[in-house]
Every structure is written in structure tokens, then in C-alpha cells.
Amino acid sequence: MDCDAFYASVEKRDDPSLADKPVIIGGGRRGVVSTACYIARIKGVRSAMPMFQALKLCPEAVVLKGRMEVYTAVSRQIRDLMEELTPAIEPLSLDEAFLDLTGTERLHGTPPAAMLARLVRRMQDEIGITGSIGLSHNKFLAKVASDLDKPRGFSVIGKAETADFLHDRPVRLIWGIGPAAQASLDKAGIRTFSDLKRWDRDALSARFGAMGERLWHLARGQDRRRVQRNAPVKSISNETTFLEDTASAEILDGHIWRLSEKVADRAKARNTAGLVVTLKLKRANHRLLTRQSQLTDPTQIADRIYRTARELFNIVGDEGPYRLLGIGLSHLTSAEGADLSGDLLDPLAGQRARAERATDAIRNRFGSKAIVKGRALR
Amino acid sequence: MKISIERGTLLKAVGQAQSVVERRNTIPILANVLIEAEGDTVSFRATDLDIEVVDKAAAQVERAGATTVSAVTLNEIVRKLPDGALVQLADDGASGRLNIEAGRSQFQLATLPREDFPVMASSEYHANFSAPAPVLRRLFDKSKFAISTEETRYYLNGIYMHVAEVDGGKVLRCVATDGHRLARIDTDLPAGAQDMPGVIVPRKTVGELRKLLDDDEASIAVSVSETKVRFATPAITLTSKVIDGTFPDYTRVIPVGNTRKLEVDAAEFAQAVDRVATVSSERSRAVKLQLDEDRLVLSVNAPDSGAAEEELAVAYGDEKLEIGFNAKYLLEIASQVDRENAVFMFNSAGDPTLMREGNDTSAIYVVMPMRV
């Protein structure tokens, strides 16, 4: 199941005046398009396109920054509907998920295709969001099918027609084939699945390594990967590309705080905590610098993440300027064992953590802007 | 160079030196040990650029000279030679090989020129003093468990050795902390140490130093400058850079007003903590201490895996108290106590707790409680 222009659809649902306008969700002048509605897509706007280019193609577009917390809530509602079909759900993102419906026909007394049709119908009626369905006998083909006739698509690729279906299709359909892999396949003269099928197994492995083995199977429409329920989240990170490159410690400090807070909010929402804090900096020349620090005990407190990231920033030993900054939290564990122990050398840390919890409570009641740190305004 | 040396003597000297060598090296010569023969001694020198060890041993020197070979390989070879064997090391200068002969075994090792071997610049030391090995052993052994591993607070990645004032007199003091626990160990100030600058001795150096301190009879010559510290016995000289940073003002951290006193047999206490902590698989296992009139109940409650409780008879006469600690931290400080009872001084469930051995204030430990 793949929602149609998810973020844009949520915005149009919540503000009907946008219904017939091209809507783009994405960040700032230097940002990229994260979602474009179908009207904007007619003009050629695509996801991941730089914003300035999108606005050249579609100057009349309404650009919105996006409301992650709303999207997350809507995603949760959709998830609840999906869970009525099967417990075996593997979310790929907020708006896309694999559902394993094997064996559910006997449970529901209805074939999977009918259950899925009912699912998208309910999504539209009850939540106001449309989605496309791809139904097939493995993940690779289901994913391909879901993209076949968007929006409001419904495609089925059966076992019997798999070979015919793939025959003339381009190999770039394969999820994970980016421009680099595409180029090396082109070099080998592989453009379509029929080209790929002509290669024998050893030759593919010899030429493409581990990917070769997988390609051999995909050429035959085979994919043995299972639908993994709740694939464990390994890390939480947020990053931001600046409007203008900066070397200002004060401006960067503001970003470190805001991103630490975002990461902490997400950790708190999932009831997890992390042991390792990562600071990521991209220099103006696109060179990437990352620094990590392992804490003595896991945390989900923005203040601790921020302070650790600040110390990492202090020892980076590079003047900048930077175009991007990111904060990550990894080695995630349950929040039960987190932030239980105070810091002898920082006796006020406990007070700051309590202040943060109080701030969280206020925000939950009065909204995320109800109370902010001065540091966040930098 | 050509020397003959007894296998046991050689193994000891090379073993000591090679442990400084980093296993993964980007500079090839740092994997080597510099062998220098002159008079009737041979010395083995190894470095990681922060620490340098020179180990001298008696040998029959037929031809003086010097060369460098892989420290790990040389150590392995010597280790595998039979005990009591006489080992001959010889290099002819031309072949670029070091020949090793012992009995019917022969080895040739590739060498690198001695000129390329980095020798640590000598330093002017502000203070020179000597201390018996057992005194230094106590200072470092009792504090090293509290050394931090957090890279961001690099100035905590070692033991702060300095001169401190206690009741108008001066002591030599070692302090280590990671922010959760702290160890502060004092000893009488050795003559000559009064002008010593405070230095942070890195964790790796502490580990290497420990090997010099096993001999109860040994006296260790200590030299300290702002940037380096040196520990020497007649055979071994360990020189190390110190951590370039400021150790935080730890004195504010040590509670002075804690009045609730618990006295307990340290070994019994440690065993009980260890037992109850078994049920928790969490990374930071929390143990709850419930104190009441001469009674201590230790408990662990891990919702996912189980619960445990144990009662101990103790000396406690203050108000009831419930306080939690990381089990590992409690075990570590309890295991520092070896002669008398452990004395804990509490304030409240949120404040740092102090622990010492009996009434001895020359070794005190502070541990931060945990919410339970």
C-alpha cells in the first residue's frame, strides 16, 4: 500500500482551498521537494528535486513546510486500518507499507484483493487520504505493482503472468537501483529484464558481486525477502541544509539545539533512548564530517544530546563553512533504563532534565510552540 | 650488532616493550621495537608516540649496534622458544635482516633502520621523587575503575595525580571520575614531590605502569613535568605524555554534609548485590537499598525478566531511606574495601553518596544514585 502524494494530500484535506492548486511540500529555498501533489507533477515537479528548479517549472505552486506531527498521526490511523487485515505489516515510511496477507483469506472469508479494495475505500472515507495497491506474490513485484497506475491504483501481478509482465520492463524498476547501479548495468548492456535474464548466474555474480545473485532472482520475478513486522529502528536522526552556508558558531549552536530537540522528541514518542550521539557536518564543498560519542548511560533528553553534540562540535577542529548539520542517536534501547543516574560533575543536569519533562508536558497540552528555549530562536 | 641473551630475560624485556605497540598501525616503524646493544646491556624500546617504554636487560654483547624489528613477531618467537635457551640476535647491517638463533631454531626478521625510529624528546621535569611500588599500586589500583571512557570529556580519560592539602598537611593524591562515580586516594607526600604540577595520567599509561608495580620491594622513581610523566625502575623506564586538559574541580563533588551512616561487611554486601542483580539484563542494572533500623534490604525489580530481594544485618541508626544505585558501580566500590567494614554516608535518594573503609579517609569513593 502506497499513499498518493501523502503529505500534499493531507494538506489538501485540511485546507480545501488548496484542492485545485499545485502544492509542494519541502524545505526552504535551498531544500528539496519532499512531496508534490499530482497537479504539480503535471508540470514536471518530482520528489527530491531541488526547490528552485521545482519553482521554475511551476512558479504558481503553493509551497508548504510540512507538518510532520500531523502526518505521523494520519499515518498511525492508516496503520490501525491495515492492522485489521493482518498483523504482518512492514512500514517503509509514513505513507508506504508491505502487508503480508498469506493465509488471511480463511480468517476474513474474503480474498486479499477484496480486503485491500476495502482498505483503500476506508482510508478515503474515514481518513480522507487515497492510496494505491500493488498485490503480488513477493515484495519486489508488489512494490512494482503499487506504482503501476497511481493515483488510486490497483494492480495485481499474478504468478502466471510474472514472466510476461517483466519481459520488456526496464531494470530500473528494481527498488534500490540508483543512477550508479543503472550506469554499470547499462555498460553491461542490461536495460530490460529480458536482457538480464540472458545472463547466467555465475556471470552476474562475477560482474556485480552480491547484487548479481539478487539480480538473477529478480530477473525471474523471484524475491524471497519476508515481510518483517516492525523492522527494528536502529537510529533516530534529523538534519538540516542551511539557507546559506555558515561558519557562525552561534547559528550552528541554534541548529544543534533544534535538531537535538527533534531527535529527543522522536525518541520520547517511541519510548526509546540511545547510547551514542552522532554529529554530522557537511562542508560547503560537500565533504562530510561525522563524530560520535558514546555516553555512559542511554538518554532521550534533548539537553544531554545537545551538550554531547556541542562537545563533539568543539573537537571537530574544522572552521567550516558548512551547508548541512545533522544530529543522530543510535544504539537504541528501551527508555526504562535511560537517564536514571545523575552527573556528579554537572549537578544541574538533573534540574534541566526535569525542566525539559515539564516543558514536554506543557507542549503536549498547548502545542509545540507554547514554550521554547531562547537558544531555539538563534 | 650481535648479542647473546637468556630466553627468560629476553622474553620479559621484549614482552614489556611490545605491549605498548598498537596492534593497528598506520606508521610501519611504530610496530617495531628498537634494539640497542652496548657494553653489557641490551635495551628494547617501543612507542605509540604517546607512551615510550625502554626495557634494559643484561646480555653478552659481542658487537654493539642497533636495529628495529616487529615487536609482536619477536615476542612470539621468544615466547615459543624452550625455557632456558640461549638466544643469539645478530644483524650484519647489509642484508636488512635480523638473525635469531636458539638451539636448532633459526629465524630471519625484516628490519627497518634505527634512524627512522621515533625517540621521545626528553623533557625537563619539575619534580623528581621516589615511592615504594606498593604505595603507587594502591593509588592507581583503587582509582582506575572510575576512569571515564567518554571521548568528549577527554580530560576524564585518566587519573589526576596531584598534590593536595589535607588538614594543613600535604598529600599525594590520585582522583578519577566518569561523572557517575569518583575515587579519591591519598598517600603521604614523598620527599621531592611538593612542587609537582598536577597531571592527568592517561588510562593506557596506567595499564602499562601497573606492570612495574608488582614487586613489593621495588622503589619507583617518578618524574613529572607539565606535559610528561616518567616512572622508572632500574630496568624499565616508562615515559608518557599526559592528557592536555583541565581536570574539573572535583572537590565540589565530594559531599561533606552526609549524616546517615551505614556500616556493612564489604564482602557480604558485594556478594548480595551481585546475587540480586542477576535477574536484570539491563545495561544499567539498578539495585534498590532499603534501610531501616540495623536492616538493609537489597532488591532488584526488572519488569521483563524478574525480581530478587535479599536482607542483610547492618549497622544503621538513622531514619528510613530508600535509594537506588547502578549495581556495577556498587560492586566496584565495595571491592575496593579490603580490611575493615565499608562505611556508606547517605544524604537523600537524589544526592551523591560517600563510601570509605572504616574511618580511613585516605581512600574515599563517591557514587551517584539512580532513580528506582
Q: What report would you give on this structure?
A:
The complex is a heterodimer of chains A (378) and B (372). By secondary structure, chain A is α+β, with helices and mostly antiparallel strands. Chain A is 42% helix and 21% strand. Chain A contains 15 helices and twelve strands. In chain A, the strands form four sheets. In chain A, strands 9-12-10-11 form a four-stranded antiparallel beta sheet, with helices on one face. In chain A, strands 1-7-8 form a three-stranded mixed beta sheet. A three-stranded mixed beta sheet of chain A has the order 3-2-4. In chain A, a hairpin with a 2-residue loop joins strand 5 (89-93) and strand 6. In chain A, helix 11 packs across helix 12 (210-219). Chain A starts with a strand and ends in a 12-residue tail after the last helix. Chain B has 372 residues and is α+β, with helices and mostly antiparallel strands. Chain B has three domains: 2-116, DNA Polymerase III, Chain A, domain 2, CATH 3.10.150; 127-252, DNA Polymerase III, Chain A, domain 2 (Roll); 255-367, DNA Polymerase III, subunit A, domain 2 (DNA Polymerase III, Chain A, domain 2, Roll), CATH 3.10.150. In chain B, the strands form three sheets. Chain B has a 13-stranded antiparallel beta sheet. Chain B has a nine-stranded antiparallel beta sheet with strand order 14-11-12-13-26-25-24-18-22. In chain B, strands 21-20-19-23 form a four-stranded antiparallel beta sheet. In chain B, a hairpin with a 3-residue loop joins strand 16 (228-232) and strand 17. The radius of gyration of chain B is 25 Å and the shape is elongated. The model of chain B has no long low-confidence stretch (mean pLDDT 93). Chain A binds chain B through residues 275, 293-298, 308, 311-312, 315, 333, 336-337, 340-347, 350, and chain B through 148-154, 177-182, 248, 250, 253, 282-284, 286, 303, 324, 326, 350, 352, 366, 368-372.
